[in-house]
Amino acid sequence: MVVTGMWEYMQKFVQPVLLNAMGVRWMESKLEGEAQCAQLEQRGLVEFGFGGKVQNDILHLSMDYLDEKLCLSRSCLIAMTIMMGCDCAQKGIPGVGLVTALEIVSEFYLMEHDHPQVILDRFK
């Protein structure tokens, strides 16, 4: 790898040394960072994968709670994220925020194991 600037040098060489010296467990993702964090959380390898700032008022919603009480499966959440815009679908659907995405999913989510793309295809 050709390092072209100081920031790239810090990321490539200094950052790993500092993290190791502080005893921080870390990994370099070969894929999209959020996708890697989601996989680690799904496998039970991490508990707080997307940040870690101290919060006084933390609302913990488990996937079981979302599925049972709110009828939101993992596929629904992925479809909503794509509609609103995310790293893998940066533009999303113009004008679609949380409320609209929730309304769309509740209308077009038909089967328990629907793939997120199936939900989006029904909406089109």
TrEMBL record:
Source taxon at top rank: Eukaryota
- Cited InterPro entries: 5-3_exonuclease_C_sf, HhH2, PIN-like_dom_sf, XPG/Rad2
One GO MF term on file is:
DNA binding
Name of this protein: TFIIB domain-containing protein
**Species of provenance:** Gongylonema pulchrum
High-level lineage: Eukaryota, Metazoa, Ecdysozoa, Nematoda, Chromadorea
